[in-house]
Prior knowledge:
This protein has 16 helices and 16 strands. It is an alpha/beta fold. The chain is globular. The chain binds 3-methyl-2-oxobutanoic acid and zinc ion. The site of 3-methyl-2-oxobutanoic acid (KIV) has 10 residues, from strand 6 and strand 7.
Amino acid sequence: MTNTSQRVLIFDTTLRDGEQSPGATMSLPEKLEIALLLDEMNVDVIEAGFPIASEGDFESVSEIAKNTKNAIICGLARANINDIDRCWSAVKNAKASRIHTFIGTSPIHRKYQVRLNKKEVLEKIQMTVMHARDLCGDVQWSPMDATRTEGDFLCSVVETAIKSGATTINIPDTVGYTAPGESAKIIRMLKNRVPNIDQIVIATHCHNDLGMATANALAAVEAGARQIECTINGLGERAGNTALEEVVMAMKVRNDIYPFHSEINTKKLMSASRLVATVSGFPVQFNKAIVGKNAFAHESGIHQDGMLKHSGSFEIMSPEDIGLTDSNLVMGKHSGRAALRKKLEDLGYTIGDNKLKDLFVRFKELADRKKEIFDDDLIALISDSASNEAHDFIKLEKLEVVCGTESPQKAKLVLQIDNNVFQTTSKGDGPVDAVFKAVKELFPNDSRLQLYQVHAVTEGTDAQATVSVRLEENGKIATGQSSDTDTVVASAKAYINALNKLLLRREKKALG
Ligand code: KIV
Ligand code: ZN
């Protein structure tokens, strides 16, 4: 870090904008787990959700507010009193709270979304920001679609928001339309023309529709923004948001040209990426910058030779910086509990005694079936949200399948449903189809399969398969995931896991 390096705040919106990705809906315990990790890795502001959106959103934001220790907890609210009041009720118990309110300001948003003229928009900003500020000392305001808003009007809305009490002004590139030069120009224009802009923090919020989100965010910072809004793995609406891991590492690795820094503990980046991928069911592309599986892999002979001679020849940052352990120490059936704990700690997981006990049993079971257990196997084991939990309504007891060239394929399935055991045999077009039909026969439901995805955790024919299943029922979406050396068993467990999650949502709806 250079001596003159300036601090940039990291505002993570994985749980709000990220969760808005179609299919990325997360449950309360999942959101809380992510929030605690973000808190632990020193994220400055966690945008925990949109409290007015649903009872579930409100509850999640409140729980996150009560349980986090360091970060400012922020909730989103549209430009109206009800939204803002609800948002405040959800965030007010945090150690530090923020209300984030917004309104569309571009011509197209004013005409079709907001249906207000410029004067009315200005009045609404004044009224809502003042109301938010009466409730909370920390108010963030965003002109939605800022990058397509007329320059003069953008200056006027920002000036009004500051006069009304906003403490952070966020400039969203809502549709991912801007480019780095323009992103910087907008920030410079605001800094030059808006009175008292030096009294507030300017934030940048970029979507990635043209693949320029990271570059646009960094350009805004060069021009004077001091808060970057981003998400883990770049999760977010459409093509996603600026990826947290990318901006943080860009400022760290190229501090010579970006003399800025964040307080993020970069060693947690890999665990955060894995957790968000598991929970959202959105796998990270192999060649994704920083956290992709291949980001530190060197395949070609020239590169491998260079790496052996000096790792700096082809590596601009070290894998340890982002929490990847150097050694892929192989574990096996003779490895003990202490070795497992140590290995998990090296991988960035802090595991309590009870969880370790359970993981150790599952580790031994896996070691009986698979000679060598690699890091990725352990991560899959830890991420296996589908291992039967005591409170699960539906549990897998036993599965046998008949598959091969002779069709139809068959599945004989035994499930425990609400502590009663049921059994059936179903036929299908392939073993997975037969299993899913058997589950539906034993537990009839209206859910629709939105995604079925399999990937091998490691190399070799004895590799575990990680299966993700996304189900939709009456607009509610749940993603289940499971890993097993038997792909069909992993598929059954992932499907049952998604069903259990849907059931929880049904229950919540009934209560609400
Ligand atoms: O992209 C956007 O404009 C947003 C706002 C709510 C800040 O997410
Ligand atoms: Zn957004």
